[in-house]
Amino acid sequence: MAVSGFYKGAINVDADPAVYYSGQVVSGSVFFDLEQPLNFSVLYIQFLGEANVSWIEIETERINGVENEKRVDYLGREEYVNLTQPLAGGAGPAQLPVGSHNLPFKFQIPITAPSTFVGEKGHITYSLTAYLMYPDGVTKEDLNKEIEVVAPFDLNLGSPRIREPIDLEFEELHGCGCFCNPDPVTVRIRLPLSGYCPGQTIPVAVEVDNESNVEITKMKFQLVSKELYRSIHPASEYVLPEKFLVSAKSGPVMGHSKRNFTYNLKVPHFIAPYLENCTIIDVGYFFRITIKLSGCTDDLDDEAEICLGLVPVSGFLEGEYTHPLANRLPKGPIPVAAATELLPPPAAVGLNGSTSSLQRLQYNAVTSAYPSNPPPYPSGNVPYLSQDTFQSAESIEMKPKPGSDYQIGFKAPTVPVGNVPYTPMFPNPYASQTAVAGGPAPYPTNMAAGNNGLPPHTQGGFVPSAPPPTD
């Protein structure tokens, strides 16, 4: 016998796997079977995209000469989308009949939504949750499904600096007073561009002019990533140890010799997250060169920030570029937007990495209504809402997580974070009401229908940012 009941149902979406570009439309349905009629007040679905960071530190404080350890919880949270859409009910007590139920829904991901991200101290997630509220206004059941969002970054839409080469130069005179010859060792490194895509090969041009007796025993080329997390309550930052994405070496170069060569460094296969529109998590990528010398000399090293995108710089590659993980990318074309949606980047003072990264474009979120003409519900007496669309910047049942009193909408550490209001991306189409136990649920029954047709959307400006390299 088939298992029935709302809680045994499922949320199905139109993409398999459930991966979408920022700006794409998520459509699907809530499916469940009932073996007996179900009394309820409203059935609705919520689309929530949020970032959360958290870490714990043990601090020592001295009170009256006595040292005590104190636990400090660092927390941060912000939202990118929070929409709800009723599927049935909403006008008072109602009843779902016996049988199979398949209720359609449709949401649009904001063009500014950052990529899904899972890190050690924080994450960015997007979820669909269907809620079934009972007539008492308190009891509810829910179904949940997470989707993945890829914020696509076209390197051609970034700063002109992406097309500029990266030049690193080392020049050392070695005269340590005993064995070292004070003649110079000069090494020049050049990368043709500052932006690449996974799977591409970076031709690292190396020019060595070693006039000393010191031998260059090894040159190490690396791509590293850095992650920075920002808390809101209390305001602080946490930088993880860097991660090595790829490492390769070349050498040696003997003393009193010259050598010119090109080393091909391949960008590893992965889908790089783009988090420019997330203010509490930063991820950045860097090219690093380390030169090891013989004798009594220290290593030489330097690094430069690079950008990893989804669409490569035009004119750099011969032939057509295919992402090495194309089978894991969303289906369909990357959404594009009208030029009128472009906004200048905000001047966020004191936000390390976000305003100083290689490229930064920011698009205005577009308020949109979707054509929604659901088929008639398979029952004549179920109170379907007749309106075409429903989207709210506030969840009907969204409550702060237990123990969390921090604010949403943190933009920069220099802004007071005690009372930072959350500015909704979409207007609330209905006035708030108060629920009365046993009475009609406080849900909208008269909502303005949206216009038909989806608005044009753009390739979003999503740029990796991270703490600037240390000297």
UniProtKB/TrEMBL annotation:
Pfam family, one: Arrestin_C
Any one of the GO BP annotations: protein transport
Cellular component GO terms held in the UniProt record: cytoplasm
Keyword RNA-binding applies: no
Record-linked InterPro entries: Arrestin-like_C, Arrestin-like_N, Arrestin_C-like, Arrestin_domain-protein, Ig_E-set
Arrestin C-terminal-like domain sequence ranges: 181-313
Record flagged with keyword Cytoplasm: no
Keyword set, alphabetical order: Sensory transduction
Coiled-coil spans in chain: none
Similarity annotation: Belongs to the arrestin family.
This protein's name: Arrestin domain-containing protein 2-like
Organism for this UniProt entry: Trichoplusia ni
Name of the encoding gene: LOC113503508
